[in-house]
């Protein structure tokens, strides 16, 4: 229940419906939009929201629905069900096209069985009666005209008329040629008068040609004569045309009789098309305002996260501006929010945003909020917004407010959401304030929920020590004296009356005089509120700064973790290879010693042979020692490092490739990771000493990727999120390889994917501009992206 009824208009709901109507394809859909209303049935609300969400997913991420035509087939069915009537060719063609749409949509969902359950429920148990289409196809052609062979009689008459018209034309042409040869003809050619072909004859020659005079020129010098020879033939054609028309009516009447038993089914198809158009319009509007499906609860609770007023979103898109999001909550502990702050600071907009979004959700509409937002179900919504004075009822503005307050205090309960703008105004503040406080106390005792805006200090003080009510304020920049349009819960706000007056230009003398007229206590309260406002602004700025630093620190930490993991893996591989190499050297040395001992034994320790074998052993061991020495990295002092060289970090032992040398710094690559190190931390190593897996990773990452990089990406047929993920990866590579431009192939469709991609790319500073491909090469189905 909404009280008063005009609250819907004052909250902007009528304008919301007008926007949805603009997306409808049919009058039936627009009629359903007019019937949208505030509901309190949880299951019904959920059903409508899910239907809209599913249709939104189809528009954004799936192939478009095969919707071709929407006609009012209920009106045609009403006409067809009356005995003795018949539908025209055009009316049958409208039914035919509408049924083609019905069956194509049903087939579309059957191919995606279970993917859109709430939309599938729209045609659940709907009979598929294709005999109606077959009957129409036998009579009506693809252009909506009756077929010449719809019956034998019609085919005969059509051929007979065509032959008679041909004979008549030949006869007229012959007579016209003879008249020309005799110079009887006036200037001009054959013409039609009263549906008959006539010859223009000079008036003085009209008795020379026998026939029927149908007309004469304004000057009377020319008469238009139908020759006697073709007069009877034309009459015969006219008679056959009447017969043909009677035969067409007979055929259409017979087809209408065949269709009449299916009228109840046609009504069902009509309802399906109407609902489909209605849900489609709601989904398109949801996309227009960037709406999502929030969490809907059965109890009375409200939590808005990044909520925006829908009408402000539409205006902001037109003006290229951003809407400041609203964050607030109402629950059992904080049922009523008392919002204060300066004029034009956004109090009323915040309150109207809460009311409008609540109405939209309970009307089955998606809303522009974060998905984690929560909406409870309220049975009643009471609103007091604007001036409702009435001359007829002899009510002043304040009297009108009081009559609403009377209703609110009598009928509000724990299932009621109360919205009051500028609470208590309209009369002497000395009396308006206490009355407003009393009303607020009663509404609070009835456990009602609400958002109330006010300037009254007594209400702020009352809210501060009353359970169930919490102060909130619109943040104000008291340095630049301008509103920030951000709601903060927990503290009341100042009206900033004197500060705003000073900015406007009121004289210091006038302001001092005004300040002297308010009480000392009031001045202290207002000063305290201003100080609190200043502190809140500073805290907010510090919070934003800390959030930025935390995000940056997290990013650096994640990068460090990746590097550490790479270093650890590299270190393990190097240690493993070093151990294997050492084992091989030891194995070779042991083998050499064993062979030497065996040969000494073989020669029975001959002195000369023993000395010779020892000398050979010494030489081989020296070679192994030299080989092991060569395996050690060269020092930085003896080897110059240049671009493309492989180096080893002295402190960690990790191997990397040099991408660029910049004075005392080296830009190096670990696979796809980049880093900068000092020269004195690195020593050059030979290519042969670099593990194969590391060399392979480098070649694949830098050489092959750069060579194989294609300056276009095709995301047609992908869902929105998948397409953006692919484009993000592609953009990183394009920037890494210093590409000047690339193109994104997204297709045309409804333009949803194109708009989503362009809005996403706008946030990157590396993107300088975007434009459509040439019309001959794809037009707006391809976006060219230019990089700085």
UniProtKB/TrEMBL annotation:
Enzyme type, top EC level: hydrolase
Keywords on record: ATP-binding, Coiled coil, DNA-binding, Endonuclease, Hydrolase, Nuclease, Nucleotide-binding, RNA-binding, rRNA-binding
Gene Ontology terms describing biological process: mismatch repair; negative regulation of DNA recombination; rescue of stalled ribosome
Alphabetical list of Pfam families matching this protein: MutS_V (PF00488), Smr (PF01713)
Residue stretches in coiled coil: 532-620
Gene Ontology molecular functions: ATP binding; ATP hydrolysis activity; ATP-dependent DNA damage sensor activity; endonuclease activity; mismatched DNA binding; ribosomal large subunit binding; rRNA binding
Keyword Hydrolase: yes
PROSITE patterns registered for this protein in UniProt: SMR
UniProt keyword ATP-binding, yes or no: yes
Residue ranges of domain Smr in the record: 713-788
The enzyme's E.C. designation: 3.1.-.-, 3.6.4.-
Annotated ATP binding sites: 341-348
Family: Belongs to the DNA mismatch repair MutS family. MutS2 subfamily.
Record text on subunit structure and interactions: Homodimer. Binds to stalled ribosomes, contacting rRNA.
Stated role: Acts as a ribosome collision sensor, splitting the ribosome into its 2 subunits. Detects stalled/collided 70S ribosomes which it binds and splits by an ATP-hydrolysis driven conformational change. Acts upstream of the ribosome quality control system (RQC), a ribosome-associated complex that mediates the extraction of incompletely synthesized nascent chains from stalled ribosomes and their subsequent degradation. Probably generates substrates for RQC. Endonuclease that is involved in the suppression of homologous recombination and thus may have a key role in the control of bacterial genetic diversity.
Protein name, per record: Endonuclease MutS2
Organism, scientific name: Pedobacter aquae
Gene assigned in the entry: mutS2
